[in-house]
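dumping this here so i dont lose it
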């Protein structure tokens, strides 16, 4: 699986460690945006790079880490076709994929330890999208991106 990653300065250490783990597991991994604590950067920049790579098909999925995961999620979700989920536990990781077909995982460097970041990522990557009624709901999200009222779509 091709995975692109990005972080701001607060997520730098976590993203480096996660990249090493994912590479060992055989994934094709590329850091598209990261900066270290001595060279702070604004989270919208790596969020944009990762989200555009996923939206264009250059990568299968993306992972973003900042202090809380909130800013990365907001920024990434501005890109057409992106469903970025800010996740803090394994259940949310599973549901963000199985129900929402999230294509970017956003994590908190400040609130989660490295082991939990890795476990959440593992669950997220292995969980398939269920489709069915959830596909209809994802289609309604796409309708919103297109400026349409999802309530006007047929069920």
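and the seq i came up w/
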């Amino acid at each position: 699986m091709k995975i692109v990653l990005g972080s701001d300065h607060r997520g730098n250490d976590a993203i480096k460690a996660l990249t090493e783990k994912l590479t060992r597991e055989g994934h094709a991994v590329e850091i598209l945006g990261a900066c270290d604590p001595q060279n702070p950067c604004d989270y919208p920049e790596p969020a944009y790079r990762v989200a555009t790579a996923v939206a264009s098909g250059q990568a299968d999925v993306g992972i973003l880490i900042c202090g809380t995961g909130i800013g990365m999620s907001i920024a990434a979700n501005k890109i057409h076709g992106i469903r970025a989920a800010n996740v803090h536990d394994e259940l949310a990781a599973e549901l963000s994929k199985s129900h929402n077909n999230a294509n970017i995982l956003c994590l908190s460097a400040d609130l989660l330890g490295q082991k939990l970041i890795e476990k959440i990522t593992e669950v997220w990557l292995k969980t398939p999208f269920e489709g069915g009624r959830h596909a209809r709901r994802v289609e309604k999200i796409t309708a919103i991106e297109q400026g349409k009222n999802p309530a006007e779509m047929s069920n």
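The first helix runs from residue 12 to 24.
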